[in-house]
Amino acid sequence: MRTFAIGDIHGCLAAFEALLSIVPLSSEDALVTLGDYVDRGPDSCGVIERLMALRSTQVVQLITLRGNHEIMMLMAHRDEAIIRDWCDAGGDATIASYMGTKLAGIPDAHWDFLQKTLPYHETATHIYVHATVDPEAPMNEQQDHMLYWERYWNSGRHVSGKTLVCGHTPQRNGEPRDFGHGICIDTFAYGGQWLTCLEPATGQYWQANQKGEMREGMLGRPMTPAAVQAPLA
């Protein structure tokens, strides 16, 4: 079984669809999505629908992690007093994607999806998380502010010896950043750059953007010109 990871989608459904069209996924593979499915981009509703469809059709073994933007959305659902804070962080785009101005327009199935997202995923060789980890703490002792909120600042290899794969800290040049013991694949999709899918075992990655352009690369090598381009109509 191969494992792939996708960085912060942030409502960029067009990029997500284009990316899924070029990554060679099978039903035997695991796909770990690193959270921040919602906010800022134009179609958070569509992104959640697409993730739910991937899970229900079982075209891949989907593992959905939780990001800080899912936390803010869930908090706003529980306490309307903080809706404005969430909207200031991009939640207004999420509400608009549901064709409304209130949280009441969001289906129960979507809230259920968000509630069931996971704090992290661990394999024999890698740790997958939205934000970062305390390198000195076992995973079952990690604090929420590390898993969801802190930026990744190359703080050293995790005590387990495993390689970290994370999002959350945007790489504004649109390329994943490899620190050797940690790889950040938030490549600023909502900001006009690329959405990234990485196969950590090989270092190969695939990217797509909201224009429907696609390209491939390998960690540690200069990015080559776009290998495939399929502008959306």
From TrEMBL:
Q: Which GO terms describe its biological process?
A: RNA decapping
Pfam families referenced in this protein's UniProt entry, alphabetically: Metallophos
Q: Where is the Calcineurin-like phosphoesterase domain?
A: 1-181
Q: Name one GO molecular function term.
A: phosphatase activity
Q: Which residues form the signal peptide?
A: none
Provide GO CC annotations from the record: cytoplasm
Q: Which domain of life is it from?
A: Bacteria
Q: What is this protein called in UniProt?
A: Serine/threonine protein phosphatase 1
